[in-house]
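Before a colleague's protein record goes any further, I have to sign it off. Would you go through it and say whether the fold makes sense for this chain? Take the sequence as given and treat only the tokens as open to question. The record follows directly below this note.
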Amino acid sequence: MNKKSIIKTAAFKSLMPYKTELKAVDAFLCTISDALKDGREVNIPDFGRFYVQDCPEHQGRNPQTGEVITIPATKRIRFKPYGNITNLSMK
């Protein structure tokens, strides 16, 4: 499912016009993105938690040459679902 199909489905389920739902989804995604950029967690009850995880520098191998290389430290976005999110429904 891509962003466009999410917006279409949400507009259909909420009985809102597509353009209104587009603004709502964009605002929602922007809010999550901004919070993660600031290093904050995003908890959505009955859905899950988005958070930033620090990954330390470590050694790896170039698969073509077998040469040992240093992989720099980085940050990764993670998602942990709460319970069974497949049982969600619009209320």
